[in-house]
Amino acid sequence: MAILTFTLSPEGIGKLHDALACLGKFSESVSIEASHDKLVLTALNSSKSAYASFTLVGNKFFSKYQYKPLRSANPKEKFNCRIYNKALLSVFKARVGDPTRERETAIERCDVSVEDGEGNTKSRFIIRIICRHGVVKTYRLTFESVSPMHALFVKESANNSWSISSKTLRELVEHFGPGTEQLDVYSEDGRVSLTSYTEKIMSGSEILKQPLHTTIAIDTLEFADFSVEEQLHIVISVKDFKSIITHAGITNTIVKALYSRPSCPIQLTYSDEGILTEFILMTIGEAKAGSATPAPNASRAGSKRPASRQPLEATSSSKRAATLEMPPPSHHGEQNRTRDSRKTKVSRPSPPPPQPSIQSDALFMPPADDDRRWDPLNFEDEDEMLLWDTGAENNPTTLNSSRNLTAAEAGNQSGSHGETNTTGGQNNQHTSTQRIPPTQRLSGIKGMFDD
Amino acid sequence: MRFKTSVRNIQTFSKLTASLSSLGKVAWLRLDDDTVRFTIIPETGTQVWASLSIDSIFEDYTIQSAAPNNTINLELPLPPLHRALKSAINASSASIRLTKKDGMPILSLTIITNTVSSGNSAHGFLNAAAGNQDPFGENGAFREESLDAGREREAVVTQDIPVRVLTADSVEGIHEPRVREPDAHIILPSLIQLKAISDRFTKLAMSTTTAAKAGSGNSSVPKLELAGNMHGSLKLSISTDALNIESVWTGLTNPELDPGQVADGEEGLEDHPSTKLRARGPDAWAKVRIDGRDWGRVLSVGRLGGRVIACFADEHALILYVYLANYEDGADESVLTYYISSFSA
Fold it and tell me: Which residue in chain B has the smallest CA separation from A170?
């Protein structure tokens, strides 16, 4: 029997996809917790230093939402399950942001029902995507019944707070190059500096492999609200922060941060229509300047955190090597470098007056960047070049249609597990058997028997 | 040792680093009173010697060192430089200086950029204040004085790129390759077209030699043949067991050699290999065999929009001279020289 049923609008599907993509950067599985008025999606990373949670409000986010607990005697009872995130992503990804295909095969809505129970009922997470022309795609995903772990954050003890436009923050974060590990947030004298850096010690020609060290200095007036202890360094993982801001920047919202002191968690929240988003990240312990708290040489890596840490599970933030998603240059565990010296430079030449600036949206917009065509061709990937541009047309009978399924998409689709069955003609899973896609569309060829 | 400059032309600088970094990750950067020179010498593949007039990318350039001509030699990783310049694309100003941090030499790029005013309602009054500033008024000309006015909407981004300072001794032995006088020189057609066709040819050839592809990589990839004559034609071809394709451009220009640049002047010109090749007619070609992937990386220089002259030393080497448009007339020329050696048949 169906414990949970809900219906999503096409727009809701897109938003759910964005949320899942963000959760996917923290953990490969997503925990789902349903109660009578909301659905909560959470992920906790493997080192338990970062926690992400999306609360979808039942009557706002969904066009229909109904939860019937198994034992209806207790209406407070929640339903919990855990699903492999990629499976969900590939289901909802199908059509996101592809206006060229929208006309013919647009999704009208998406019905989800979760079945569980004793006896004959199979435990399945069933997603039905209803498209135009009566095409219905049904996905049955398996799930685990596991209670999610929630990180706790005690707001009362968080005396530092700021909030800022997500767009502004996203624009700033785009300046950070790849490869760095930490982000330091520091404020002094009306200026806030965000520094992305890494602590690897390198020597010789290795020095040149050191990632970019980036400092962004902005005025506190850039923030909607800024109330933070002067000269306090708060250090978090730059990768986690980027993941968050990437999602937050999709909509124009206000990101609010709350924190107390190093080695205590920081909370970042924002909301969008019907979605409340919360992240709790462990900050890296560091004796703040002039304060006598932890031992000055307390190793920031691998050391046991003071028992006062608040989140349930968010413990050491340093055992990064275990995280699957971390890029290969993983955190070098034990380093005891004092960083005080390198934290002092905040360059603040006073800038000229503002001029209208053209926004670079590299992260989120399709590359309108002509310059890219000059990049050397990667002969190893299967993307084809010099094709006839089929433009907005998407005629599934041409051999070229397979190119619409990008390699990445194909990878994701095959990565989904659970049973997929497709009713109707919507089969875009066929793979190209041609090594070299033709340069001419079949419809354009005049055969010898045509007349 | 001091080096500090403003970046005059961030776009050009960024495109230059993009083109160079496709050939090698680390460049030798030589700065002195007159020129900025990037040199890339990869272990295999094409060498680039890019010599730019200071004006073409920098302004307010100051350099000081104990070496003659105030020369500073640096080893500079290109991907971080390129990434850092990306931050500067929409900047109102950017400057670079050589400095030290934690005892390590760095090139520090300071970028002053405008932050987006995304209708942050709490700051409506600031947007209004910013709107009152006339961006075309005094502020441009007297930037220094009006600094504090717009501070609220500015972000100062500092990108620190690790570098190594090279001693004069360590670069003494590195010289530009010497190649014999070319047999043919010709102005190349549109590089984007040439690149598309070259890439296409290479890809076709690679996919028809799949068996070898899985094997030992480089050696199995068929080579592109590029040939030029002295009668305005360029020929690009590739052949494998399964196919043989060829593209020919005609009506191109063979620039006249400047007698002043040729050994023995007018006389030398008469004996010049290219004069001889021209005399042999349009069916006489000077030919090189090159690796298609390497060639694709070379052609990424097209983004700079320069004029490209290809010099063919038959069966030996191909040299490309990429002349960049000058920032000001009469300034020293900026030229990128690519040395591509030919594979034997």
Answer: B116
